[in-house]
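One record is kept unedited as follows:
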Amino acid sequence: MATPLTQAALPHLSEDVARPAYDRAALTPGILHVGVGNFHRAHMAWYLDRLFQSGRGHDWALIGAGVRPGDAAMRDRLQAQDWLTTLVELDPKGLSAQVLGSMIDFVEVDPAATIAAMSDPRIRIVSMTITEGGYYVDAKTDDFNATHDDMVHDAAHPDAPRSVFGMILAALRNRQAAGVPPFTVLSCDNLPENGHVCARTVTGLARLFDPAFADWVAANVVFPSGMVDCITPATSDRERTLVRDRFGISDAAPVVCEPFRQWVLEDRFPQGRPALETVGVEFVEDVTRHELMKLRILNGGHAAIAYASALLGHHFVHDAMADDQIAAWLRAVETKEIIPTLQPISGVSYDDYLDLIVARFSNPQIGDTIPRLCLDGSNRQPKFILPTLRDRLASGGSIDGLALELALWCRYCEGTTEAGAEIAPNDDNHAVLKAHALAARDNPKAFLDNRTVFGDLGSDATLAAAFADALRSLHDNGVRATLVAYVG
């Protein structure tokens, strides 16, 4: 019989399950995190649990918050188990489990409750994991999208916002009025210069309704950038069954992840921060080069294998990596075109990092899926592929592989695999993408004419020619032959 996860049940769990050795009742909050999904719990919550286990930082416990209906469901699941989470590390050498106790509360999914929690002087950091597409960025201009319905609403109703950024501003105004120092705002999403993007959205929204307050925010609120990394699959019945059958725990919201984590942060926290450097977090003056390394080699690598693997019928990432042609394509595009766009980092070997990425992608225990990698391409391609492509074009280097990656995405957007199986829609812009992809069969430039995704890059003649060649090869010769030709 599996034991339902609660605080009272911790002493009765199997001896091979690690659990909090610290007094959770003595923890006090220091961080409010918006978006309590799997990645947050496998990453930030894990680092904080590790810190608390060392006897340090007990005034930096987590409070959860959310803005979407799904967040309310997560809150309900976690509340029933005293905010505890079972985390299983999927190490090929052997699985391990631990119960994380670093979260001590989760406010009601309600703007007023979230604003009140953010206004608490004990909260010195407000962090968020809200996906790459959650920052109200105009894809055409790469700037703040002031015309989005949520931003228009929050500008008109600053005391009753519906976005996390409106809630942040409402709480900052409360703190300003009460003479409480502003919290640090920390993005934990996979975005280039995520701190800068977050600051631009917060101040941009403030400027819509109170320019003077926007100036105060720009002068007083700090938004450090950071690089986060840990492959964390979605939780399904597979993961819940694993936790129940292997470790004897009934957990409604377990998390599984790879046994690798990385967190590099700019050390800018005026109101203080937990001593995370003692548990493996790296603090630097400027995170840009580390960030680009991860975004281009790892996230760009995921994009490179995603669509080729989907078209060939692979479901699991490790199965795709066992396909010699997929693995060779990944290494070729990385070494020929992606890594050459990166500036050196002292003490870091990009070749070694690529070897690590290949090993991580190949881990059969993770069970990461190709459909997850293909998700939301219209938001991910502009962040993980197009900046690399722009740099290659500016340097005059070859772009054949990056153009092929775009062609594979285009072919995927047609909606069928090479075997003719239907591909389920997994992008909010699916209908538009499919229309452009089908039109590209006769006119390859039609796909690049989607300015919402490509902006002015779609008008580049060099890209248009390379993309047309790659797409024609996919249609005429198929995926495998096209990959082999590029690698060769």
